[in-house]
Amino acid sequence: MSNQILHIESLTRSFETPAERLVILDSLDLTVNRGSKTVIVGESGCGKSTLLNIIGGLESPTSGKVIAGDYLVNQLDEKELAQYRGSFVGLVFQFHYLLKDFTALENVMLPAFMRGMKKREALDRARMLLTDVKLEHRLDHYPAQMSGGERQRAAVARALINEPALVLADEPTGNLDPANARVVMDILFSVVSDYNNTLIMVTHDQNAAAMTDTCYNLKNGKLVEQ
Ligand SMILES: Nc1ncnc2c1ncn2[C@@H]1O[C@H](COP(=O)(O)OP(=O)(O)O)[C@@H](O)[C@H]1O
Ligand SMILES: [Mg+2]
C-alpha cells in the first residue's frame, strides 16, 4: 500500500460571476501521507472550505486531479461519490449537524446503521466512540441537552463511526470558547491517533497548528508550507 493517502494535482476551482471569473483555488498541489495530521490555516474567504469540500467529494473542482486512496475523486459518478463519502471520509464541520430528535448514541450509530451494520454492532461501536470522546455520561442526551463542546465531541464520534481512512475537519472548534476548543481539539487529535486515521483540518486555532507535523497557509489559491 502506498504511503500516500491523498494526492492533489493542479486543482483549480473558479466561480463565474457576472463581473469576473473568481479563481479560488489556483493550480493547487498537495500530498498527504497515511496517518499524518495536516492543518490548513488562511484568511476568511481564501478557499479553505472549498478545498476541504472538494477533497470530501461534496463539491467538484473546475479542473485538476484528486486521488484519495483508490478513488479518483474528480471522476466519480453520483453513486461512487456516495460510497466514497460514506466509507472513506469522515466529516466534522463548524456546526455539529446532529439530528435534534435523536440522542447522542443514536446520532453516532446512524451512519453505520444506514450502511448496513447490524443495529447491535452499530450501538456498541457508537458507545465505544462516545466513550473515547468522553461522553459516556451523555449517551441518552439530545443535542439540545448538551453543551457546544459536547455536541462537537459527538460530531467527532459520528465522523469516525464508519472507520474512515480520512477525517476532514472544517473549523471544528470555530464556535467554541478557548477552553472548550482546547478539549475538543485534544480529543480529536487523540482519537484520530488511536484509530490511525489521517486528519486534514482547517482551523484558526493556533494551538492546533502547533500540535501537528504539517501546517499550510492557503494563500492566493495555493498552499504554502509553514
Ligand atoms: N457559488 C459561489 N459563487 C461565487 N463565489 C463563491 C461561491 N462559493 C464560494 N465562493 C467564494 O469562494 C471563496 C472561498 O470560500 P470558502 O471556501 O468558503 O472560504 P473559507 O472557508 O476559507 O472562508 C469566498 O470568497 C466565496 O465568496
Ligand atoms: Mg470556511
The CATH architecture would be: 3-Layer(aba) Sandwich
How would you state the average pLDDT, rounded?
95
Order of helices and strands: EEEHEEHEHHHEHEHEE
Largest sheet: 6 strands, mixed
Shape: globular
Number of domains: 1
Instruction: Specify Rg, calculated over alpha carbons.
Output: 17 Å
Give me the oligomer status.
Answer: single chain
End-to-end Cα distance, whole Å, is: 28 Å
- Give the strand order, joined by hyphens, for the main sheet: 6-7-8-3-9-10
Number of separate helices? 7
- Helix-strand category: alpha/beta
The CATH class assignment is Alpha Beta
- Helical proportion, percent range: 25-40%
Number of strands: 10
User: Regions with pLDDT < 50 over 5+ consecutive residues?
Assistant: none
Output the CATH homologous superfamily.
P-loop containing nucleotide triphosphate hydrolases
Q: Into which percentage range does the β-strand content fall?
A: 25-35%
Which ions, cofactors or small ligands are bound in this entry?
Answer: adenosine-5'-diphosphate, magnesium ion
Explain this structure.
This protein has 226 residues and is an alpha/beta fold. It has a single domain (35-60, 76-225), classed as Rossmann fold, CATH 3.40.50.300. It contains seven helices and ten strands. A six-stranded mixed β-sheet has the order 6-7-8-3-9-10, with helices on both faces. The chain has a four-stranded antiparallel β-sheet with strand order 2-1-4-5, with helices on one face. Helix 3 (104-114) packs parallel to helix 5 (148-160), helix 4 (119-132) packs across helix 5 and helix 5 packs parallel to helix 6 (178-194). The protein binds adenosine-5'-diphosphate and magnesium ion. Adenosine-5'-diphosphate is lined by residues 15, 17, 22, 24, 42, 44-50.
